[in-house]
Amino acid sequence: MSVTTPLQFRGPGKDAEQETPPVRGAKEPRRKRVGERGPGVSATRAQQTRAAWLFLALPGLLFLLFTALPVVVAATVSLSDYAVIGPLNWVGFKNYIDIASDPFFWIALRNTVYYTVLYVPLGLAIALATALLLNRNGKAVRVFRTLFYIPVVSSTVATATVWYWVLNPQHGLLNEVLSWFGINGPAWLYDSHWAMLAIVLMSVWAGFGGNMMIFLGGLQGVSPDLKEAARLDGANAWQVFRHVVLPGIRRTTFLVSTLLIINAFQVFDQAYVLTKGGPGNSTVTIVYYIYDRGFGSLQMGYASALSFILFVIILVFSLVNARLTNRDAEK
Amino acid sequence: MTASVVSADRQRLQRRAQTVRRIKTVAWWLGVCLVSIVTVAPLVWTLATSLKPAGEILSNSLSLIPRSPTLQNYIHAVTTVPYGRYFVNTLIVAVGGAVANLFFGSLAGYALAKLRFRGRQAVFITFLSSLMVPSIVTMIPTFLVLRHLPLLGGNDVTGNGGLGLINTYWAVIIPGAAGAFAVFFMKQFFESLPDELGEAARIDGAGEFRIFATVYFPLTRAGLAVLGLLSFQAGWNNFLWPLIVLNDPKMMTVQVGLAGFVNNYTTDYGPLMAGTVITMLPVLAVFILAQRWLIQGIASVGIK
Fold this sequence. Notes:
CATH class of the largest domain in chain A: Mainly Alpha
Distance between the termini of chain A: 32 Å
CATH superfamily of the largest domain in chain B: MetI-like
CATH architecture of the largest domain in chain A: Orthogonal Bundle
Structural class of chain A: mainly alpha
CATH topology of the largest domain in chain B: MetI-like fold
Helix content of chain B: over 70%
CATH architecture of the largest domain in chain B: Orthogonal Bundle
Mean pLDDT of chain A: 83
Oligomer: heterodimer
Number of helices of chain A: 15
Low-confidence stretches of chain A: 1-39
Structural class of chain B: mainly alpha
CATH class of the largest domain in chain B: Mainly Alpha
Number of strands of chain B: 0
Shape of chain A: globular
Radius of gyration of chain B: 27 Å
Low-confidence stretches of chain B: none
Order of helices and strands of chain B: HHHHHHHHHHHHHH
Shape of chain B: flat
Number of domains of chain B: 2
């Protein structure tokens, strides 16, 4: 999972917010004031309001300066040819038009979509399967939960170097193990057909533990009575899973798949460390291309336009995902 | 006669159910052990490789126990790459980031959870919605903002002429200091504490800041510990942002250093794996020492 700025959360923000609407606090005192006209109540309210804005002042300023303002600046810069050095010219939508006929953009887009299409379903399935495996109590379960989670702790760079060795064609762990079964493993990172797949495998290995934890949280919300009732009605294990468990964790599935999509489209670290985009441009991803343009060639305007296009792509895919999840709900 | 037939049938059924249960248990153990091997084996193998002398790495590549263990790879790694320096840099950035997140996360989280004021919901939604913006969109502008902060790092009043905060620890710490996750996490935590504590203090005439500092804040130790560890881990593992804003070799972090190592010593697996172990060790150690708390903390955020 790529965590770029310190702590970009992968957790269930929206779920919790919907469950605990904090309106209760806002309404009550006002109603009281009409009835009682107690000066004390409105005094503490004014006090609380003042304190709240005081408390929020610094975090709010940081938020404005490093989240809100940058979005506006990115939109503005994407309409210019800003290149750090030299004068800035406004070029309108030229960057966006140029991107449409930029062969590297299409290569990067194709690679990123390929990665996403493999990584998201695989990551989702393995996270859910392992969560189902560990959805019980006991001392052993706690140990295995920790063992499954260990890859999440290490950084993408360290994971990548570990896998750089695991994927070594002659001496790597993976091909050695494959050879026990008579399979002659490919050259992985040195073969343009296999390089991206290798990065997918590595990313799934590195990230599934975190999503497994979210799924475990979701699975605890599925009522055991409901499962028992279905079993008594003669449903087999698969039917219980398909018709009771899966609908019960729909919101969790939606959350995890959205997080996976957002992360998948921003894949960078692994490609940067392992392949530098090669072999034959087969692992150039969009963020890699943005990095290369923005901080390699200093074409900040062009890179900003690219990043906005990526933003829109992520938004579209997230919305499609939301539609698909909701359509399943209506069935 | 019939009674004994029935009981024999029941016995057979019971035996069958028992066998099925046993098979299921064995399958479960096989499954979890297999997954554990897949997650742990590459790491154990990395450690093993890092302890093997150069000749053994390729000839005896698969073995998990080095025939003649040596620390020469570590010495090699530490002498070719200034790991000590990188270590200190990363420690400052990670600890600084964690402290900032705890401080600002608590302030904002407390205000959003325990204080009543108009616009609370709007502020919270604004914070949360920032999680939706991919970090790559804000990356270039954040770089520009840091570079053009007026009167810092050789800049004039208009924010030109110098490098601003680029190539300083602040460039990594400040942009993520009030992370939306920290705010959200602490808000959840403060909400789990009873309102009555604050009300009682308020009736006693305590000011809002005193209520926060003396009544609620001491109760959040467990939450702070989990958030602190998670922030530290994220800060330690952060790669792309330090790569962008710290381009002076003296300022680099271990992750950036390790990435450079891979590019320059592509076939020197021994030192490379030693470097990887050095990079991983601090977070792995923190995780193993605090894993009980952490896993619980992560799970509880997931459940809520």
